[in-house]
User: What shape does this take?
Amino acid sequence: MRIKVRKISAGIAEGEAVVTREAITFLGGVDAKWGVVVERGHELEGRSIAGKILVLPHTKGSTVGSYVIYQMKKLGTAPLAIIAVKADEMLATGAIISGIPLVDSPSEDVLSIPQGAKLRVNADEGYVEVKD
Assistant: This one.
């Protein structure tokens, strides 16, 4: 299945989906050293987003979150790509300066993608492919 998306940050990535219906804050909500969601009560609390395709509705929190994403990229703990229902400036900036493919405005409900599904994000051509 292919889903049309809008490119925010260029690139192509393939990997396993980590999906949340809750917004994530990178400043204080994600441990950059390990790439683990640490926000108390978050549905992904304790789960790693490192080396995964992160699917989320949007982010929340400070603009400093952009630099947390950049730090994660430098530490090797960042997501391979990010699919957002709606990307804000913080997420866009973090993805762009980190070279992480980021797409948003999907033509279908990406939040219903199953955990662990194999995805291909092609931001350059504007699609996400859910592999069988």
Summary: The mean pLDDT is 96.
